[in-house]
Design a protein that fits this description.
Keywords: Molybdenum cofactor biosynthesis. May be involved in the biosynthesis of molybdopterin. Pfam families: MoCF_biosynth (PF00994). This is Molybdenum cofactor biosynthesis protein B. The chain is about 40% helix and about 20% strand. The protein is an alpha/beta fold. Strands 2-1-3-6-5-4 form a 6-stranded mixed sheet, sandwiched between helices. Helix 1 packs parallel to helix 5 and helix 4 crosses helix 5. The longest helix is centred in the middle third of the chain and has 15 residues.
Length: about 170
């Protein structure tokens, strides 16, 4: 299904135990974005280290492309889960409802274990950034129940696409 506005996207996996050939969550997000007609410009896998994650996301957000960055992995509570710490300081605006809605939907699947997810999203330099858990089920849930509609410029009454395009002087 092709949406009316194609976005430039990046997918980043934060993992100490996967490589691109075993990164099913990152591959799912890549394929789901492309199936909507969006262009995945970058796909990276980095160690679950907040400094590496932040540096890469800052490079992408400082550029005119991509408009959307989806990060999978590093949103739990273990000692190596550093995605939230890497991303929160660089956000201009956190979209609190994203994490709240994700956990509400996730509760239907995994019950109270959802409280261990720190999924979140926000805007940095008018780039939408979402931090998702590393599990394939969580990525599918977030994409199919939240991101698919919000990355569709025809979704009413509002969506992230129109928000990004309206406020993006970098791409003029």
């Amino acid at each position: 299904m092709v949406m009316s506005e194609a976005l430039h996207c990046a997918v980043l996996t934060a993992s100490d135990s996967r490589d691109l050939s075993t990164d099913t969550s990152g591959q799912y997000l890549h394929d789901a974005l492309e199936s909507m007609g969006h262009r995945v410009m970058f796909r990276e896998l980095l160690p679950d280290d907040p400094y590496h994650i932040r540096a890469q996301v800052c490079r992408w957000a400082a550029d005119a492309d991509p408009q959307v960055i989806l990060i999978t992995g590093g949103t739990g509570f273990s000692g190596r889960d550093g995605t939230v710490e890497a991303i929160r300081p660089i956000l201009d605006t956190e979209i609190e409802g994203f994490g709240e809605l994700f956990r509400q939907l996730s509760y239907q699947d995994i019950g109270s274990s959802t409280v261990q997810s720190r999924a979140m999203a926000g805007l940095s330099n008018n780039t939408f950034i979402a931090c998702l858990p590393g599990s394939g089920g969580a990525c599918r849930l977030a994409f199919e129940r939240i991101l698919r509609e919000q990355l569709d410029s025809t979704h009413k009454p509002c969506n992230f696409v129109n928000l990004l395009l309206r406020g993006d002087a970098r791409r003029s």
